[in-house]
Amino acid sequence: MLVETCVKTIELREYAKKLGYDEVLSEDKYDSRYRLSLELSSKEEITKYIRKIKDNKVILFVKPLSFEAFKYSLQSPKVAALILDRKNIGLIGKKGSLNLIRQAKKPVEVQLKNLEVDVIYKVIQWNKWIEYPILSSCASKFNEIWSPLSKFSLLVTLGANESDALKWIYNNPTLLIGNYDRTTTY
Amino acid sequence: MIGQLLIDVVIFIWLVILTLYSVRYKVIYFKKLRAGKNVKVKRYIVFEMIPTPFPQAELESAIRNAVKELGGKAWLEISNPKVILTYQNYGVISSTRAGYKIVIASLPLVKSINGQEVLLVPRRTTGSLKRAKKLIGIR
User: How far is residue A167's CA from residue A10's CA, in Å, rounded to a whole number?
Assistant: First the structure.
């Protein structure tokens, strides 16, 4: 099952299906299951947001901006995945932080909206530590959605192994949703 | 002086005889240099235009700009993408075997053509134009 892990509105589901995706995770609150992306810099802020979330249909994605927030979001089972970009790559790119990600086995999301090739390249290089990377479009318009084939080609062009690239696009988003379902149901 | 000239003539005649002998009895093999087996192999990318089709020339320039944006001039020259044909909402891009992946990767970077929003979706990659035509429904 192919899953697009980030679109802004539910209306884009139709286009995502045309591109070959089976499931879409939108930021629209009216969807049966939606994602919430937060950019936070302290542990208190994360706990505050987690307390606010009362329904089970939210999948929480956190972009940590401090080491404290990063460590807490790795430990918290409510945080489904971490968001990685140029703002926090310096924080996560240290060996100690990478080892923590490997231990926690949390998915790491890279958003393709601004296409930060250097970030994607580094994630490919950190394959040993980041076990579950995810590429998501985060499209707010229909023409910003990336097709799975384009994502695959981008990864391969930047030096990723073909089997790894396939795993990142095909398996990891499914795994993310599967993990989330397991933790909320039981 | 005459002696030197005589030696030169003898050597010249000897070389001519040797050349004729080697060519006639194929002592020296002249092997034609051929290009590598797959140098000319192309890849044809079938793509779909959503929601409306666009003219070939405008599509080509947009795709070339996108490839240049992602991979730079080097990859543009390696991949050398050209829109060969468009049919209804589908089109075919020809590229090289070495660079077709960067063309596929840069298709989402084409966000608008002439101010009109567009989404280019890669569908299939084939090795022959005949197959590509068949895929988009041209018989």
Answer: 26
